[in-house]
Write a structure and sequence with these properties.
This protein has no helices and eleven strands. The protein is mainly beta and 124 residues long.
Amino acid sequence: HVQLVESGGGSVQAGGPLRLSCVASGSTVGPSCMGWYRQAPGNEREGVASKYSSTGSTYIACSFKGRVTISYDNKYTVYLQLNNVQVEDAATYYCAASSRLTGLSLTPGKYNYWGQGTQVTVFS
């Protein structure tokens, strides 16, 4: 069973960067794919970016291209940097992992492990 722990949330000044970290544990094999999602109150969960461990491939959702970087140290970690943070970026950010995916995906139902989420507020 994979456990995911996110860190790096909190209050961020508008215009500044946000950096989030996620570490997976509990699996000797490691997740095949890890991703970042966010959900603001009243909104659906939104995929931000994902990485596929075996190839190192990454994918950033269209609405975030140019502002988001996804990176990792190994198959157990994934980092998200969101630049030029706006008030609309306030949300709970979730790390997700899959032991089943054989390629990049941001379809929530294909992830079988989720972190508790880290809340991000934005002040101007």
